[in-house]
Amino acid sequence: MKDDALPPQVARPAFLGALAVLCFLTGLIAYAGFVPLATTLTLSGRLVSSTPEVVLQPPYGGPVAEVLVARHDHVAAGDVLLRLDTTVETKQVAAVQAQQARLRAENAVITALLTTDMPVSVPVSGPVLDGAAGHGHEYALQMQLAYAEHQAKQQSVGALAQQITLLEGEVALTERQLSGMQARADRQAGLLQKGVLKRTEVEAFSEQVLMVAAEIEGSRGTLAALRDRQAQMAAQAQIVLLQVRQRLTATRARNIKQLQDIDQHLAELKDRIERATIHAPISGTVTRLDLPARDAYAARGKTVLAIAQPLAQPHLELTVPTTYIDQLRPGMVGRLVLPSLPQRAMPRIETQLAAISPRAALDEAGQPTGFAAQADLSLDASQRLASALSDLRLSEDMPVQVIIEVRETTLAQYLLAPLAAAFQRALQD
């Protein structure tokens, strides 16, 4: 056996080499068993602006007359984006304004007629009638006819007054005649008692007195009838004026009410015309355009255009798989990865989970597909990316990934911890 043994000059170096390899493997195993190992999760998502997207919705709607922008165009605040057709509204405004002018002219004529003292004889033309145009001239003629009828009735009242005056004179004269006849009848009665006159003569004269008295009573009845007719005629003369004034006043009130409605309708039409030209409320990029050409129709209240603001401070919208949700919580820090960029030149950009949706999104079959999450970038992320990659330009909806370290452990803990736990439970049993 001594012949088979290695010579010392060979065995010693071999032993030392094997010992060194054994020590190296032992150290490597010890290092691998106790070195910290990180469990990472990769979340996918997209880049979005921290400022909300502005959507434009026509408040009235209508056919599109002109589209001045296209998708992805950069616009400044105040730029005209599109115009709706306002041909119908413009014609309606012209018609309504014409009606408004006519009603105002009518009211001006009516007011002039109600505030002007018309003469007894109304001329065919004059300051009032010359200013009455269209329907206003009709109202002026109504007032003219009313004053003419009033004049005729006033003339009748004057004629009745003359008749009453004459009849009153006749009655007064007859009453004086009756007084003389009654005095004579009294004297004849005395002479009859003395026997100077015959009874037949006295009775005949008494009949004459009665006839005169009856004539006076008839004249008084006629006088009362004339006075009553005069009062009625005077009242009718005033009623004629009051009736025409009442009609004109009612017409003016209706016109005023109609003018109020017209003012409101006209304001709505002008507002429709003004809002038919849609301007950009902010500066940004057109991200959505549902009216690519003219002759399309913009529905009322429907989004036709959207403008995204510049990505001054973007954030991330991520999707968390359902298998990861128990390992993530808001506040955890991760590393941003842009898959479309070279990773060697990309700086380390940290992100922080800001919020995680408590409910999962469901597919058409009702199965959960993932949880929505939002992550914020560091304040200097955009500057660091721009300085590291000069050609980089962040844009909305850019795909991103976030790598998050959720837990640290060692191989020894991973292998020995279950054995220790099982052994401890065995001892307890």
From TrEMBL:
One Pfam family hit: Beta-barrel_AprE
Organism: Thalassovita mediterranea
Protein name: Type I secretion system membrane fusion protein PrsE
Ranges where the AprE-like beta-barrel domain occurs: 317-406
PANTHER family: ALKALINE PROTEASE SECRETION PROTEIN APRE, MEMBRANE FUSION SUBUNIT OF EMRAB-TOLC MULTIDRUG EFFLUX PUMP
Gene label: prsE_4
